[in-house]
C-alpha cells in the first residue's frame, strides 16, 4: 500500500509505452469518482474498472496509479499491494480478456497535480477541476496512461448536493444518494486517450444556449458570474463560428451536441478535454477587456477547439509528435481567427505578440527540433514550449504557403477521415498533405521538423543569401519580398516578388528599383531576415509608413531580432517602435507593440537610461490614449511607465472607475518609492474581484524594500497563494525590477535555491508556470554561472533545464544590451 498523496511516480518511457501498447488493447474504462470528501476535506476516491485484452496470455505488465491503492483485483483475484511502487501496480499472468478493478484515493488535491481543489476567498465556496496532460490521469484513478491506448470512458460521479458536475458530455441522469449528495452518470465517451477526459465540479454559475446545432455551455464560480455574463455573447459567438468553420474545413463536424467551457480558479492555461474545455478564469477579466485581450481569448478558444480534431479525434502515437497537437491547434486558431471572426489581423498579432518567443527559444541553447527526441514523459513536459507551439505554427504557415491552402485542406480532410479515433505519426500527416499537393514532402519534412535552429536570410543586391544555424545549409524557404516606394510621407507598395530559396544563394529576377525591399513580407517564412543597407535605414526610420499592419509587424520584428543579436542598440529599436506607435491604428498590433516598447525601455535599457526611455514611451502612450479604440491598452502602458505628475493626474482620473488600472497605478507608485497602505486598503474594499488580494500583493512586490520582497516571495513559494497564469505573471513583473539593482541580486540566488529542489513531475501547469513566470529579468554573472551549472547537472528535470537555458541566454543578451 502507498501513502495517499505522497507517491514518487516514475516517468513512463517510450520503450515501456511501445511494449505495453503492443501487448494491450483497452476495451473500456468504467470509473466511479467520489468527490464528496472534497467538500470539507482533501480526499478524492475512485474505483476504476478496466476491461482490456492481451495479445500474449501469460505475459505481465503494469497499470499506472499514482495515488493510495486501497485494493486491486485482476480477473477476480486480489493483487499483492506490497508490490505497488513508483505509481505502478504490477499485473502478472494476464489472460486473453481481463478485468482490472482498482480502488484508489488521492489526498494531494491542493497542488494542481492533475486535480485541484480550491476555496474561493470571497465566499468560501469549493471548486474542483482535473487536467491530465501529459500523464496526470494516473493521479486520480488507475489507467494505462499513454496516448495510444485509447478507449471509451464512462464516468459515475458522486458529489455534494449543491455541486454541478461536468465531464466530456451531457449526463444521462442525476439522482440523489441515500448517504448524501447526488450521483451524476455520464455515457460512454468516444475512444479517447486518458489525458483528454475530465471531471469538474462545484456550485458553478451556468449559461447555456443552443447555437448552430450544438448545446453550448459556459461555467464559472459564483463570484465571477458578472464577468462571464458580460463576455458570454462573445464567447458563444466565437464558439459557434469556430465549430462551423472547423467542421466545414476539416470535412467532419464536431460529432456530439454538447460543447462546454468551464472557467476554473488556479489554472495556468486551458486544456482541450473532449467536449469540455477547462480554462483559467483569469481570462474573465475584471475590467472591460481590451481588443488584444478579446483577441487572445478568441485565439485560445479556437486553439482548444481545434484540438477536438488535432489531438482528440486523431492523437499522436507518442509525445515526440506533440507538435501534431499543439502546433496544428495554434495554426488552426490563427487561421480561423482571420477567416471566421472579427480578428482579421490575426497573423500580424501572432508575429508581433507570439512569434518572437519562438525565435527567442530557437536561438538559444534549449533549442530542439520540432519533432524532438522524447525518451520519457518528463521530457515531453519540457517540450510544451515556444518551439512546439510557436515555431511549429510558423512552420505550418510556411507549409501552407509551400503547397497551397487548397491542397493543405484537402490533405487534412483525408488525414481526419483515414485516422479518426486512432493514433498517428508525422509521416501520416505529411503523406496526406503531399498526396493532395502532388509533391514529395519527405526532404522538406526532415529539414523543417528534424533540425533545430533558425536560418538567416539576407538581401544583398538582387540575391538572397541563406545560411543555416551554425553555418549549416539553409532549409528551403517560400517567401515574399515587398517592393515599396516613397510617395511623400507614405511608403506605397509597388509590387511583390515571390521567391523559393534554393541553396546558399538565390537570385531574385526582375526586381525593380525601390526605396525599401521588405524581406519576408506577409511573414510566410520562419527565419531571421536582414535587409540590404538602404532598406534597413528606411525600415528603421519609416516603418510606421508601411501601408499594412502585417508589413509593419515584419519591420518591427526585424529590428527586435537585431537588438537581441547585438546588431542594434536599444535606443534605435525603441525609436523605431515608438515611431510606428505614433501613427499605428490597427488594434491587432497596438498592444503587442506597446508591450515590446515597454520591455525595451524597462528591461533592455541601461539602468541609468531607464527613466528617459520610459518617459519617451509614456509620452506616446498618453497621446495614444486620446484615441478611444486604443485608450485602455495605452493607459495600462502609461501606468507602467509614468514619470511625471501630468501622467499620474491623467491616470488617477481614468482609474476612478477602473479597478484594474487603479492597481497598476499603485504598483507604479510603489516601484518609485511611494507606497500608501491606506490607498491599498481602500481599493481592496472597493474591488469585487475575489483575487483582489493578489493585486494588492503585486503592489507590495513592486516596492524597493527587502521586507516587501520577502512578503511577496513567501506568498508565491511558501504559501502558494498566488494562482499560476496571468495573476502570477503580474506579481512577477512587479517583483523583478531591473532598476532596483543590488536589491534584486540576492533574490536571484533564492530563485536558484528553489529551482535546485523543484521537480515538475506532478502538476505541469502549477510548477512549470511558477518556474517560468518567476525567472529573474535581471541578474549578474554569478547568477548566470550558477543557473547554467544547475541546468547541466546530471539528472536535472528536463523542464527545469530548458527554462534555465533559455532564461540565461535571454538574460545574457539583455545584460549585454544594457552595457
TrEMBL record:
Pfam families: ERAP1_C, Peptidase_M1, Peptidase_M1_N
The entry's keywords: Aminopeptidase, Hydrolase, Metal-binding, Metalloprotease, Protease, Zinc
Membrane-spanning parts: none
Cellular component terms (Gene Ontology): cytoplasm; extracellular space; membrane
Gene3D superfamilies: Neutral Protease Domain 2, tricorn interacting facor f3 domain
Gene Ontology BP annotations: peptide catabolic process; proteolysis
Domain ERAP1-like C-terminal: from-to ranges: 516-811
Catalytic activity: Release of an N-terminal amino acid, Xaa-|-Yaa- from a peptide, amide or arylamide. Xaa is preferably Ala, but may be most amino acids including Pro (slow action). When a terminal hydrophobic residue is followed by a prolyl residue, the two may be released as an intact Xaa-Pro dipeptide
GO terms, molecular function: alanyl aminopeptidase activity; metalloaminopeptidase activity; peptide binding; zinc ion binding
Homology family: Belongs to the peptidase M1 family.
Protein name (database record): Aminopeptidase N
Taxonomic path: Bacteria, Bacillati, Actinomycetota, Actinomycetes, Propionibacteriales
